Amino acid sequence: MIKLSIITINFNNAIGLQKTIESVISQMYQEYEFIIIDGDSQDSSKHVLQTFDDRITWWVSEPDNGIYDAMNKGIQQSKGDYLLFLNSGDYLYDGEVLEKIFTQKCEADVIYGDIDWEENGVRSRRAFPDTLSFGYFVWDALPHQASFIKRKVFDEMGLYSENYGISGDWAFFTLAICKYNCSYQHVSAPVAVCNRDGISCQPESWNDIVQNKQKLMKKEFPLIYTEYKALQSNADELKGLRASRWVTLFSFLGLIKK
């Protein structure tokens, strides 16, 4: 059977960490290793880790240099054929998720499912497309919480870059799919439940995200960088238009579809 490495990073989020751990150890599918990287938390996270020590394959609590440094530590410790990054606070959709994924034929370099956003106790489904394109990555990304990545992809591409701030996973997926032509497969089912209080979901982070995207595109895709900026501008304009009061009114009246 395919062995999976589940990697969780955590920093001062004991409640979220316990929720994540409980969702993993309750899985019907047991062919996984569970690795947790804690950034020397000063809350009760270490107590949580010690409580579940016998259900965790390997864990460490020590200072790190941020999200992707911690995730890279997890990669270096992993031995699975596929890797899943389920950070503290996020949790698997139900106890049968992994069983449903890994009892199917798994060959693609990246297998990704859908997620449920959770905010103030309310969930909303986020479905991802079956077909990916360069245009898709102009303004969107794949959910690392619901993406199973073959270990060989990291062996060939290297670890997550720490040069793109909080957009490191977006940069990795963009290069994997658009530059290195990695194969992918969409599973049309929810894999994880994610909290919307993450740093990348905050409005104050949006400008950094745009800057990081431009930085990668200019470096890795210089011949289409001008077109990329135009696509990004059009996407931002379209988002603004969709959010306008006129479009909302016309949509309510049934005159247009958003």
User: Radius of gyration, Cα only, in angstroms?
Assistant: 19 Å
- Assembly type of the chains comes to single chain
DSSP E strands, number: 9
Name of the top-level CATH class of the largest domain:
Alpha Beta
Biggest sheet statistics: 9 strands, mixed
Residue windows where pLDDT falls under 50 for at least 5 positions: none
Q: Any descriptors?
A:
Spore Coat Polysaccharide Biosynthesis Protein SpsA, Chain A; 258 residues; 2 domains; alpha/beta; 10 helices; 9-stranded mixed sheet; globular
Overview in brief:
This protein has 258 residues and is an alpha/beta fold.
Question: How would you describe this structure to a colleague?
Answer:
Strands 1, 2, 3, 4, 5, 6, 7, 8 and 9 form a 9-stranded mixed beta sheet that branches. 40% of the residues lie in helices and 21% in strands. Strand 1 (4-10), helix 1 (14-25) and strand 2 form a beta-alpha-beta unit. It has 2 domains: 4-220, Spore Coat Polysaccharide Biosynthesis Protein SpsA, Chain A; 223-258. With 258 residues, the chain is α/β, with parallel strands linked by helices. It is built from 10 helices and 9 strands.
